[in-house]
């Protein structure tokens, strides 16, 4: 059974239940994630014992806001559209990744998942050697890509087909507002002679990015270039903490199969889809161990 046949097999009642969005569940999860970030922030500011190690935890929590940004691009974490938009822009600002631009990029990824020359995620090839793997995991290429996107959008250089012509002005304005915000924060930091943002934000996201790279590589790495979502996307079995930080996105095959399902309903969708999964892995460490052994020259 492919993913289309699976979707057809779901009853109308199942579809309605699976796609029910909730402000309460979304906000509760948001408070947990952002609350953990606030806790780490204060521990770093007050330089409690081992505060340098806490910067790594802070970094992981911050970079995994990408999974929330990703979810807001589908407008599924919250029932209220405006909450999705506000939260998406906050996450995008923290990660130097414009929210509206990312929505169009990500929709193209869903429409053409694992289709060469069409899926924009495949523009950056997966690592094929140990050197490429180390560079990929370092996060350097993705930061370069983020800043190229920001500057390119700000000057109106949006040439990708997935950006609608009618929305390019909006994308330009978004990037300029983000850059204005960064300039303001930089100016305030210089004026106040403060390095606070370095220790609670900038350095942590550099330290946390490798963990996100290892995580994201499992979503489609070493998956076939076919249209069936049960084959071209991987579900990774992991613990509750990782699923919580990643907003249940380890259930990635399920997400690609039915993108309208909000994060809190993905475990239910997983129960239904599990017999049909064709590509899965028992943990991210296991995936990366196998990737290094099988995919690298």
TrEMBL record:
Biological process terms in GO annotation: ceramide biosynthetic process
Membrane-spanning intervals of the chain: 31-46, 53-70, 82-102, 175-192
Residues covered by the Fatty acid desaturase domain: 51-275
Any single Pfam family the record assigns to this protein: FA_desaturase
Domain of life: Bacteria
Keywords annotated in UniProt: Membrane, Transmembrane, Transmembrane helix
Family annotation (InterPro entries): FA_desaturase_dom (IPR005804)
One Gene Ontology cellular component: membrane
Single GO molecular function: sphingolipid delta-4 desaturase activity
Protein's name in the database: Fatty acid desaturase
Source organism of the structure: Pontivivens marinum
């Amino acid at each position: 059974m492919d993913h289309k046949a699976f979707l057809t097999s779901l009853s109308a009642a199942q579809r309605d239940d699976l796609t029910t969005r909730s402000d309460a569940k979304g906000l509760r999860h948001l408070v947990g994630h952002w609350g953990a970030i606030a806790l780490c922030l204060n521990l770093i500011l007050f330089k409690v014992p081992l505060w340098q190690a806490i910067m790594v935890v802070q970094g992981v929590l911050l970079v995994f806001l990408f999974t929330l940004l990703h979810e807001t691009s589908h407008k599924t974490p919250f029932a209220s559209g405006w909450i999705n938009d506000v939260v998406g822009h906050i996450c995008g600002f923290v990660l130097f990744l414009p929210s509206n631009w990312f929505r169009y990029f990500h929709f193209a990824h869903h429409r053409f998942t694992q289709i060469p020359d069409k899926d924009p995620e495949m523009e950056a090839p997966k690592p094929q050697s140990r050197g490429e793997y180390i560079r990929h995991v370092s996060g350097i290429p993705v930061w370069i890509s983020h800043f190229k996107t920001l500057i390119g959008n700000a000057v109106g250089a949006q040439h990708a087909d997935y950006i609608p012509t009618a929305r390019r002005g909006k994308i330009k304005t978004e990037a300029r507002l983000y850059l204005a915000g960064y300039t303001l924060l930089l100016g305030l930091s210089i004026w106040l002679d403060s390095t606070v943002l370095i220790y609670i934000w900038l350095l942590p996201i550099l330290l946390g990015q490798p963990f996100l790279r290892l995580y994201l590589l499992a979503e489609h790495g070493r998956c076939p270039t076919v249209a069936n979502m049960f084959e071209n996307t991987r579900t990774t079995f992991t613990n509750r903490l990782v699923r919580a930080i990643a907003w249940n996105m380890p259930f990635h095959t399920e997400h690609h199969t039915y993108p309208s399902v909000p994060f809190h309903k993905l475990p239910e969708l997983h129960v239904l889809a599990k017999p049909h999964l064709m590509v899965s892995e028992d943990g991210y460490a296991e995936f990366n161990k196998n990737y290094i052994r099988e995919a690298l020259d």
